[in-house]
Amino acid sequence: MCGIFGYVGANQAGGDIILDALRKLEYRGYDSWGVAVGANGHIDIAKHAGRIGDAVAELPDAPIGFGHTRWATHGGVTDANAHPHLDCTGRFAVIHNGIIENFRGIKDRLLASGHQFHSETDSEVIAHLVEEAMADDPNRDLISAVREVFAQLRGLNAIIVLDNRTHQLTAVKNVSPLVLGQGTKGLYLASDALALVGHADRIHYLEDGQMARLASDGVTLWSAETGASQPPDFQPLTLTANDTSLGIYPHFMIKEIHEQPEVLRNISSHYSEPVKELAALIRESYGSFLVGSGTASYAALSGSYLFSRIARRHVNFTVGSEFKYQEHFITDRSLVIALSQSGETADVIESVLAAKQRGAKIAALVNVKGSTLDRLADFSIPLGAGPEQCVLSTKAYTAKLAILLMAAHELNGSLHVARELLWQAIDGIEQAIAPDSANLIRAIAARIVQREHAFIIGRGLSYPTALEAALKIKEVSYMHAEGFAGGELKHGVIALVEQGTPAIVFSPNDETRDDILSGAMEMRSRGALTIGVSPVNDQIFDEFIPVADAGDASPIVNVIPAQLLGYELALLRGLDPDKPRNLAKSVTVK
Questions:
Q1: Cis-peptide into 502, omega within 30 deg
Q2: According to the model, what pLDDT value does residue 550 have?
Q3: Segments in the chain below pLDDT 70
Q4: pLDDT in the model for residue 372
Q5: In CATH terms, is domain 3-243 a member of 3.60.20.10?
Q6: Known catalytic residue: 390?
Q7: I need a labelling partner for 28 at 20 to 30 A (CA). Which of 169, 192, 285, 493 fits?
Q8: Domain extents for the chain?
């Protein structure tokens, strides 16, 4: 989940380049930041707890260095626990993304050998292991030393080692992402290609177990397993400065909410062929599974409803972190459809690896081309949503729903119907984000902003929408929000309703309407403030948010008011909607 960035080149202002890149990577972790450069015979480090903001790193000019934005796992949010970390001699510095599962035993051994530690992190053991590996022969090739060290680490990790004596960066990864960049002024390493915009024009995604050495004379790749040299496969970097800027918007969250109609237009117009391929894979499989984590899991759950009601096809749904407890059903005839914005979500990757071991075929709906999931999949459909820099996922979610809707209709022989529904959904989203609708939601947010709890209910296709709506509200505004199936109210949930408790009710024009309105009345009779999200108003609603009726595409439309409500609540509470506390965009640790 942490962000890492390295630079080797002709520009002596390496520290400034690194700090600028870290600002683009801060969505991956903003507990602390740090920069190290190699200059004047030693390594200079600036690191601090907290967000980068307008910070300036007081570092000497240097042509080599790296930096890190941290999402804390081992050790508190302190300056000492911020990366980079040094070995005892000061020759080596390390930055790390991942979790070293066996670090305690390694650290105990290193302490017993006399090594001095200055942090509580698992990451610091890497620097001391490299120091140890080089101790007997200071002229040993650093590649072989790092290869030896990496083999000792258990877990999903990406590391970069800076050697100040030889002025090189050595990197290696296992699942945790690393992208190599090449530009006219230098070589770069980053955990996300987004950080390479403005610096590199060509990129290479490191494979698992692949090592890279960056030095003034160029870049070399090796296999960490065999030590064999490997040629890089550079591809053009297609991201531009427009992808990383706010433009006319105050926050990335509202920018990305407003980008959803264009994303869906592209899917409706250009995705027929890949959707047909996905549908064929489902048709040929004997057991299909939708897997995702967080927001992607709710898109997957929606997919299970869509395949059932449209294609009369049972497609299993499993949360990524729970997949390994149900993988016993997987065979070489199974299809696992993995959903992920980043393509690096650890639980989803672990699920895919387990399924591949059992011979299953893997399909992926993923937003980042070249990501781990994209490369692992036998068949991949890019979401085409563009970069998501807000930690909360919005446009990638609706993109997944659109593709799953089209696949379900393709299985039913009615793909044209899905495209018509998507155009209705696009019109519905544009109505939902229009000024009048936005003002209404802003007023509702002001009415409920002081409340501690909110409950969201839906049935059928609207049940996953209720779950996603609750997630959006609580992760950005810190209001406790929970989504429930409307029929489960009387099984405990209604005990939580008090006078004035906000109750958001998804009430589309489908077979669930009468039942969900009945549930809304039960909540209102116990004092709840009912907020209806529906094409049709009802006297049960204290507040009403009108939305377009898009049939089976209604979940795409109905989630928009929840995204906007979460955003407005965050602003009213004085919070940063792009970087909620304790969260990071890409969950690359388990």
A1: no
A2: 96
A3: 584-590
A4: 87
A5: yes
A6: no
A7: 169
A8: 3-243, 252-572
